[in-house]
Amino acid sequence: MPEYLAPGVYVEEVSFRSKSIEGVSTTTTGFVGATRYGPILLTPDVITSVVEFERTYGDRQQLQFSGDGGTRDNFMWHAVRAFFENGGKRLYIARVYKPTSGGVLRLEEFNLANSPNTATPGFAQSAGGSQIRIHARFPGAAGNMQVRITLTAGQNVFSMDGATPTPTVRGLYQNDLVLLHEGGASPLAADFALAVPYVKDGAQTWRFHRTADSPPGGRELADLTAGSAVRVVTATVTVFPPDPATPSLVYPGLALDPNHRRGGAPDSIQSQFALAQPSLGRAR
Q1: Among 49, 91, 216, 232, which one is least packed by beta carbons within 10 Å?
Q2: Residue 107's closest CA among 157, 57, 166, 42?
């Protein structure tokens, strides 16, 4: 088609003969089949590389089926590799999965794990309160990954400002879990507390609720003295796939309170690893 770059009168010859059949692009396609791991009832999202496929649906190892299914070649992985090696760009995957217990599989039957009918999805705390049980989000042998959770206390956000020293905190969000160290106390006396904003005398201030406290308990910001420290505690979750050749996944700076939000969006460790996710990228 000619490109008209300036105003004017142009004459263009247009052929009225029928056009020949044009080829259809094969750079975008979809595969349906069994994989070692991955979403089963989520809307397929685009996959753009073999590495991305392995992170979501597992590696190239053979498929082990329970019962009399035996061992099968991982045809899906080989098909994905061939697709991208031959110029494919965008791929949609629909995983085929049949529950071993029979019946219809429903999304709510699975927590972050391979075990059905578990009460709470996500990171489940043990009855004693000192251990955490972590389960894979979807069924499949490739979900047997190693997980490392690292808690980090950030820089001190507390200071005494002004000619008349006034307790102040900067960069604090509602429902931040903080390590509260009051001035004059030994480091061993530091406590975990939840930061809750409220209005007092027409100005916003903060109250820190210790674990055993309930509103209106806790320490007031105004009660803190020089030498105190308020450090926000976050979690970094590192997931190591069973295949050493597959890169690990790192989720840094996750809030520890399930109601925590940043910029209007939930950013807690519970929301990051909840069962229901808005996209495939969040469900890995």
Answers
A1: 216
A2: 42
Tell me the helix, strand and coil percentages in the chain, rounded to 5: 15, 35, 55
For 281, the token pair is: 């990228």
Q: Are 197 and 206 in contact (CB under 8 A)?
A: yes
Three-class secondary structure of residue 81 per DSSP = helix
Record the pTM.
0.67
Would you say 30 and 44 are in contact if contact means Cβ atoms under 8 Å apart? yes
Angle made by CA atoms 31, 72, 239, in degrees to the nearest 5: 70
**pLDDT tens digit sequence for 114-152:** 333 333 334 444 445 556 777 777 777 767 788 899 999
Q: What phi and psi, each to the nearest 5 degrees, are found at residue 27?
A: -80, -15
- Bridge-based pairing state of the strands 229-240 and 177-181: antiparallel
Q: How far apart are CA 237 and CA 136, in angstroms?
A: 14
Amino acid at 35: T
- Give the DSSP letter of residue 187: G
